[in-house]
Design goal:
This protein is of the alpha/beta class and 247 residues long. It is built from nine helices and ten strands. The protein has a domain of 65 residues.
């Protein structure tokens, strides 16, 4: 593990009109680290991930990826995104393309691989997420959990330095949540660097190295997963966890 974080966020601010959504966010993510963002709806978790993926302009602060300021408006945002894989709540698969075509498109378009090499990488990734036999299936023939696993494979096709996961189980039926979380756990165990927004507290406790509790656009509390989730120091964190645990 190098001393320089893979991701370093400093003083990040994001407003929507007069409404402040992120207020001075600071966050470091080391290589091979898993950071879970928790907090109530509207706390800024998804906006933070979208800012890191350069899908949202920021109003102040810096986002450094391997020491490079990717929030500088002079940089090529598309080139910067090639080092970041993001998976959204919705699967966002192309319905007219097979699972393999969805995954293989990124290596061809982003990395310029020839069709044969890109498809082989796609097949390898589908095998990795447990869908090797579904390579030729179209999204409407796959369950929600399978579609989300294809979406994860597609994000991995970029060979990203950083993987961002935005509430990737929230649109799934409860019986499908486990298969997706199991895959994320395998990626974490394999050394992936991950920042994930999640409502799955038990999963965050088991998989995350660090948990950050956001509320009102600020990091209220951050620390080792067991400490934040089992013995939080801030009243706002305790109230949130009590409400989540009762639901």
């Amino acid at each position: 593990m190098t001393d320089q974080p893979v991701l370093s966020i400093r003083g990040l601010r994001k407003n929507y009109g007069d409404r402040a959504v992120l207020i001075g966010i600071d966050l470091d993510v080391a290589e091979h680290q898993v950071v879970a963002l928790i907090g109530p709806s509207g706390s800024g978790k998804s906006t933070l991930l979208r800012c890191v993926d350069l899908l949202e302009d920021i109003d102040d602060g810096q986002i450094l990826l391997d020491g490079r300021d990717i929030s500088d408006p002079r940089i090529d945002a598309d080139a910067a995104r090639r080092a970041i894989g993001m998976v959204f709540q919705a699967y966002n698969l192309f319905p007219h393309m097979t699972a393999l075509a969805n995954v293989a498109m990124a290596p061809r378009v982003v990395h310029g691989l020839d069709r044969r090499t890109a498809e082989q990488r796609g097949r390898d990734l589908l095998e990795r997420v447990g869908l090797g036999e579904s390579a030729d299936a179209y999204p409407d023939r796959l369950s929600g959990g399978q579609q989300q696993r294809v979406a994860i494979a597609r994000a991995l096709a970029y060979q990203p330095r950083l993987l961002l996961l935005d509430e990737i189980t929230s649109a799934l039926d409860p019986e499908l949540v486990g298969e997706v979380l199991e895959l994320v756990g395998e990626l974490a165990a394999g050394g992936a660097t991950i920042v994930m927004a999640t409502h799955e507290m038990a999963f965050a406790r088991d998989v995350a190295d660090t948990v950050c509790f956001l509320d009102g656009g600020v990091v209220v509390e951050s620390g080792p997963a067991a400490q934040v989730l089992n013995a939080p120091t801030q009243d706002r964190t305790r109230v949130f966890l009590q409400r989540v645990n009762r639901s």
